[in-house]
Amino acid sequence: MALFPFCKASSGPIRVSRIQLVLCCFLLSLIIYYLHGSRAAARVHPAHPIFHPLEMDRGRKVTDMEVLKGAESQTPAETPWGAPLVWGDSRHSASCRAKFAQREMRIGLLVFVVGTYARFIRRFLYSAETYFLPGQVVTYYILTDNPRPLDPPVKLGPEREMKVVPIVEVPGWERLAHRRMTLLGDAIQKSIDSETDYIFCADVDQEFVAPVRAEILGDLVATLHPELYGMPRNAFPYEDDEGSSAYVEEDEGDFYYTSEFYGGAVSEMYKLARACSLLILQDHADGITARGLEESYLNRYLIDQRPTCVLSPEYSWWDSDLSAQVPVHRLLSLGRQCESYNDKQREHKC
């Protein structure tokens, strides 16, 4: 069958009308355009959505970290090693809550209240009473050098109690950061071990603003840093001093975790506290200070001992240009929020 039936061949000279000639040329151009477009489509593979705002699909290196946060936010359900990555409203979280509802559990929430940070403690406790594991047996462990801000006592709900653990005054945040792991280990060993099943550590300059429930429970629980979630590995501020006990090699690490909120089973938390305190003591003896202080050693430990449960940035968030977009804000860092506002030179009462 002829491709163009109206362009008939004959033994003599080909004779076609002007209309037939125009139609033949038009159809031929359509075929050429279609074939060219098919080949082009076969050659082009669209880049992953996260690379478009970075223009990585065109070979351009972009270092502006804020641009990356414009990429489509994602809520993966698990980590590369199979641990749950927790989003509070997910089906997995609902399943966890249903599972733990059948168990009797004792949960501890520990904070350090030292120096000027005492001004945050009442706000922290009021918010925890509203949103932190409502309906569960909870003990607040307040490690402080000054119990006066707790007078009069904060009214607690049923099956909630507060224990004040005196510590020696530690002037300066940096010095406290070097001692927190040791103090945590001592507190677990002296009393927490026999009184709770799970213990969580939180910075006191935070506020719970949405429910944080049993989905957070696990043997070893870490929280993703909101400004570094979704960032490429080379953006993580791991310790880069090879002489430090917190040093992380370039091919190590999956995520960067915040020290604002972490926890787990009491036995696992004791192991973490002891291991990190030994690393800190070793660096102190060598005259080394890790760039992220306590957070650097925490990340070093969590690379070697991967968490069994990873909390999304819903559980540690503050408003900054770099913070990941998340469905719900559950725990806000007031301290880091103020730092972000100060960086932007905004007026904000902290």
Automatic annotation (TrEMBL):
Residues the entry annotates as binding Mn(2+): 203, 205
SUPFAM superfamilies: Nucleotide-diphospho-sugar transferases
Keyword Transferase annotated: yes
Swiss-Prot/TrEMBL GO biological process terms: carbohydrate metabolic process
Residues at which an alpha-L-fucosyl-(1->2)-beta-D-galactosyl derivative binds: 225, 295, 319
Cofactor annotation comment: Binds 1 Mn(2+) ion per subunit.
Superkingdom per UniProt: Eukaryota
Keywords recorded for this protein, A-Z: Glycosyltransferase, Manganese, Metal-binding, Transferase
Compartments reported by the entry: Membrane
Keyword Lyase: no
Cofactors: Mn(2+)
Membrane-topology annotation of the record: Single-pass type II membrane protein
Molecular-function annotations in GO: hexosyltransferase activity; metal ion binding
Binding site residues for UDP-N-acetyl-alpha-D-galactosamine: 112-114, 117, 203-205
Main location, first listed in the record: membrane
GO cellular component: Golgi apparatus; membrane; vesicle
Record Pfam families: Glyco_transf_6
Catalytic residues (UniProt): 295
Protein family: Belongs to the glycosyltransferase 6 family.
Name of this protein: Globoside alpha-1,3-N-acetylgalactosaminyltransferase 1-like isoform X2
Species the sequence originates in: Pundamilia nyererei
The gene coding this protein: LOC102199734
